[in-house]
Design brief:
about 200 residues; alpha/beta; Glutaredoxin; six-stranded mixed sheet; globular
Amino acid sequence: MTAENVVQPDSFEFTPESLELAKMHIAKYPEARQASAVMPLLDIAQRQHGGWLPDAAIRYVSDMLDMPYIRVFEVATFYTMYNLKPVGKHFIEVCTTTPCWLRGSDDVLAACKKTLGIGPGETTEDGEFTVVEVECLGACVNAPMLQYDDDYYEDLDAESTTRILNALKSGEKPKPGPQNDRHTSDPLGGPTTLKETA
């Protein structure tokens, strides 16, 4: 989907559930500092609107926080966590920063291309999948990795990436975390020091 054919809604409003969550975030900040809630409010708006932020949602958040529109727009365009155009139902973020790249993120992207038929920045014709390259997601010890929804899939290779994508295609939710025998972010094969409990 190109920027030219994105249909922008004329208006946006939080659902009662989203509004309650937004008010909870705003309440965390003192009077005159509530603009600090801009990032969580944009996230709430994006989740409500199917994974992307239309201009109407950015304006709604700016009005709610009594912030100039341009300041909210700057936040939405600076951080890669916000999408300014529609994305697929399954939004796949592949880290390609140096640690992931050194450990095989090219193989992860190649598996995405082979399994889904799309490359980075593209969405499948049926609107089911979008794949994007992202900068460091902070799971370097378990590189390479990808993020799907709020879950990390780590220690990937082409085979495990393909398995995860095929599970998503089938409507399954694959188990997040390391995709090998690693326990959380322990060394492969388990701890080698400090094995005794006090």
